[in-house]
Amino acid sequence: MRVVLIVAAAAAVAAVLSTARPAGAVIRCGTVSVRELGVPQPVVYRVRIVTGRVSCRTARRVLGLFLQKSMSPRGWFCARGHASQNQKWAAACGTRAGALVRAYRR
User: Fold this and answer.
1) How far out from the chain centre does Cα 95 lie?
2) In which element (H, E) is residue 50 found?
3) Would the pLDDT of 41 be above 80?
4) Is residue 95's pLDDT more than 60?
5) Paired strand residues for 80
6) In this predicted structure, what is the pLDDT of residue 3?
7) Fewer CB atoms near the end CB (10 Å): N or C, the chain?
8) How many other β-carbons are positioned within 10 Å of the β-carbon of residue 51?
9) Is the Cβ–Cβ distance between 74 and 40 less than 8 Å?
10) pLDDT digits (tens, 9 = 90+) for 43-75
């Protein structure tokens, strides 16, 4: 019985290590739709995880809340991008732990 548990634990550790993304790899998390004031159709943004360990679900939730209400969720700091500063992203949110997620307008 112990051998089976040890083998299962080793397989789980190997699976986690093999799914680690390479340094600098961006994770694509789909899109988030936001209703903006004065715009009849929802605006769609592409969501990307740039750095850190965060789920796509969390990235979409954080950016969606910020884009909709201009409010950073607890533990996050968010800012809007500016074309005048050559920023291609519409919004970016980060944590002290090093997570960075961005939204790009479609």
Assistant:
1) 11
2) strand 43-51
3) yes
4) yes
5) 91
6) 44
7) N
8) 16
9) no
10) 999 999 999 999 999 999 999 999 999 999 999
Residues in the chain: 106
Domain edges within the chain: 24-105
| Phi, psi torsion values for 30, nearest 5 degrees | 80, -150
Q: CA-CA distance, 103 to 36, in Å (whole number)?
A: 15
**What residue type is 30 in one-letter code?**
G
**Cα gap 45→68, rounded to integer Å:** 12
Residue type, 55: S
The answer to whether 93 and 77 have CB atoms below 8 angstroms apart is: yes
What pairs with residue 43 in β-bridges?
34
Q: Is the pLDDT of residue 12 over 80?
A: no
CA distance 74 to 4: 42
Separation in Å, CA 59 to CA 84, 93, 94, 102: 25, 9, 10, 8
pLDDT at 19 over 70: no
| pTM assigned to the model | 0.75
Distance CA 13, CA 6 (A): 11
35-41 long-range CB contacts below 8 Å, 24 or more apart?
35/68
